[in-house]
Amino acid sequence: MQTIEVVIFPAKAGVSAEKLQTAALEITPVFAAMPGFISREFGICDDGQFIDMIHWENRAVAEAAAEKVMHIPVCCAYFDLMDQGRMQFRYVNKVL
Questions:
Q1: 70 close to 77: Cβ distance less than 8 angstroms
Q2: pTM as predicted
Q3: What does the DSSP 8-state code read for residue 34?
Q4: Torsion over CA: 28, 41, 64, 23 (sign)
Q5: pLDDT tens-place string over residues 10-59
Q6: Exposed e or buried b per residue across 48-75, where buried means at least 16 C-beta atoms within 10 angstroms of its C-beta
Q7: In terms of Cα–Cα distance, which of 69, 63, 18 is closest to 36?
Q8: Within 10 Å of residue 85's Cβ, how many Cβ atoms?
Q9: 89 DSSP β-pair partners
Q10: At a CB cut-off of 8 Å and minimum separation 6, what does 50 contact?
Q11: Cβ distance 36 to 61 under 8 Å?
């Protein structure tokens, strides 16, 4: 079953939306090269938080990718821009 990885988060204090968007774009090729990757969407919510959604073939490949990116410097640089204490992270089973 397809899995959608959903992350909603504010930027850390002092991090501009432009800087965060640039960092998000820089890691898309990393995800795209991983097994099971389908697509990625990134946006800004009405309240100023960001949403990052990655579509995967299934939960197992999503979890494997999540583990792998924690050791890739360009991904760590992106994650470091997030206020991780206020981040929401979910795996969603796609039904439609």
A1: no
A2: 0.94
A3: S
A4: positive
A5: 999 999 999 999 999 999 999 999 999 999 999 999 999 999 999 999 99
A6: ebbebbbbbeebebbeebbeebeeeeeb
A7: 63
A8: 8
A9: 7
A10: 8, 9, 10, 11, 17, 20, 24, 42, 43, 44, 82
A11: yes
